[in-house]
Design goal:
Elements lengths: L4 E5 L5 E4 L5 H7 L18 E5 L2 E2 L7 H6 L2 E2 L5 E2 L3 E4 L2
Parallel strand pairs: 1-7
Antiparallel strand pairs: 1-2, 3-5, 3-7, 4-6
């Protein structure tokens, strides 16, 4: 899905827009957040983040299909959102 969406940081309530040409990680870093990353390709799991609301669009190779179907975690380095708002545990 190449559409804009928003990420809401559950701990602060802050909402960060994610453009159609950005990764979630790029948007988070551009907004000043420090997110642990390593491969930035969805392989290592370093940036694994809990999802509290919304439906992630998984583009990673780290989570199993069953873990992806649970929609309770995602890798912001490469994944996006199927919903207009994704609330994450940051």
């Amino acid at each position: 899905m190449d559409v804009d969406f928003e990420i809401k940081l559950a701990r602060s309530g802050r909402i960060i827009p994610v453009g159609r040409d950005q990764s979630v990680l790029d948007a988070l870093l551009a907004s000043g957040l420090d997110v642990a990353t390593s491969c930035q390709q969805g392989v290592c799991g370093t940036c694994l983040t809990r999802v509290l609301e919304g439906e992630p669009d998984h583009w990673d190779l780290y989570l199993t299909p069953e873990e992806q179907a649970a929609n309770d975690r995602f890798l912001p380095c490469c994944s996006r959102s199927r919903s207009a708002l994704l609330v994450i545990d940051l």
